[in-house]
Design brief:
This protein is α/β, with parallel strands linked by helices. Helices cover 50% and strands 14% of the residues. It contains 13 helices and ten strands. An eight-stranded parallel β-barrel has the order 1-2-3-4-5-8-9-10, surrounded by ten helices. It is globular. One of its GO terms (molecular function) is fructose-bisphosphate aldolase activity.
Length: 340
């Protein structure tokens, strides 16, 4: 199926919230990992979300170009072409854009979507994340207000972060401390600034102890019950059931129990990056170690071209990553629920 239209994307999010499940949002770094994610979604019979990060956007444009807009646009065009051949619906999303990169990444992509809309075309990306975790909440929400208005004009959805995600991802890092927990007052301020949908739809990453990357379980204390508390309090004050469309960041390595509790509180999207990266690279490492004397020209030998042909290790790596995507879809409850 083609990449989700704005209406299809909204319908995907509605189905998840109403059905009590969430979509895996898989960070991809290349056409190869994008293909692996699509394969995984198809095998799981799950719709899903493909994400491009800050560093990946540069990487995709090539080391000699280093242009986030160019890299993001190039992968999106590729995704629109190949995704049409899979029996699932996927959306494209840009992940974790800090203040210093809005002007060279997210704002140009939103402007491109507005221009495309003027020509009767859908946006290349269906949503974009503004990561205001490094600035004061008032500034975070002020920028979010401006971006939400632009997103409405672009027919895209904005994702924001209210609170701080610990750990490190693509150069954006925070300590693991008490700031990892969003408060009810933070959520109230969000509603005061952005509304609850009447000014434009947005996704909210409320933090409940989340940490990016690989971490020791003893250093992380997830409190998914905090999401339920915020949804209940703000829901009572706004007259809406589960007023926030929630995003779970730092989902890799989380227990199935914590994931289920978060989804029950209104999480409709969970980011998965570290685990799928590892699955992909672990397969390649296994190939290289087992066939070291074939992929290398040892002691003046010639090696074996079939062993160092990138396709010989790339295809198994795609299969390994796809299997991890299937696992994520099963954990989140999206498996077997693809829109028809």
């Amino acid at each position: 199926m083609p990449i989700a239209t704005p209406d299809h994307y909204a319908a995907m999010l509605d189905r998840a919230k109403e059905g009590g499940f969430a979509y895996p949002a898989i960070n991809v770094t290349s056409s190869q990992t994008l293909n692996a994610a699509l394969q995984g979604f198809a095998e799981a019979e799950s719709d899903g979300i493909l994400q491009v990060s800050l560093g990946t956007a540069l990487y995709l444009s090539g080391t000699a170009v280093q242009n986030r807009f160019t890299g993001s646009r190039a992968l999106a065009l590729y995704a629109h072409e190949v995704a049409a051949h899979y029996p699932v619906t996927v959306a494209l999303h840009t992940d974790h854009c800090p203040a210093e990169n809005l002007d060279d990444w997210v704002r140009p992509l939103i402007a491109d979507a507005i221009e495309r809309r003027g020509r009767g075309l859908d946006p290349l990306y269906q949503s974009h994340m503004w990561d205001g975790s490094a600035v004061p909440l008032a500034e975070n929400l002020s920028i979010a207000t401006e971006l939400l208005e632009s997103s409405v004009a672009a027919n895209t959805i904005l994702e924001i972060e209210v609170g701080v995600i610990g750990g490190e991802e693509d150069g954006i890092s925070h300590e693991i401390n008490e700031q990892l927990y969003t408060t009810v007052d933070d959520a109230r301020a969000t509603v005061a600034a952005l509304g609850v949908g009447e000014r434009g739809r947005y996704l909210t990453a409320l933090t409940f102890g989340n940490v990016h990357g690989v971490y020791h379980p003893d250093s992380v204390h997830l409190r998914p019950e905090l999401l339920a508390e915020i949804q209940t309090v703000i829901g009572r004050e706004t007259g809406r059931d589960k007023p926030f469309d929630l995003v779970f960041h730092g989902g890799s390595g989380s227990s199935a129990e914590d994931v289920r509790a978060a989804v029950a509180s209104g999480v409709v999207k969970m980011n998965v990056d570290t685990d799928t990266q590892y699955a992909f690279t672990r397969s390649i490492a296994g190939h290289m170690i087992a066939k070291y004397d074939q992929v290398l020209k040892v002691d003046g030998g010639f090696g074996d071209k079939k062993a160092y042909d990138p396709r010989s290790w790339g295809k198994p790596a795609e299969n390994a990553m796809a299997a991890r995507v299937v696992e994520a879809a099963q954990t989140l409850g999206s498996a077997g629920r693809a829109m028809r």
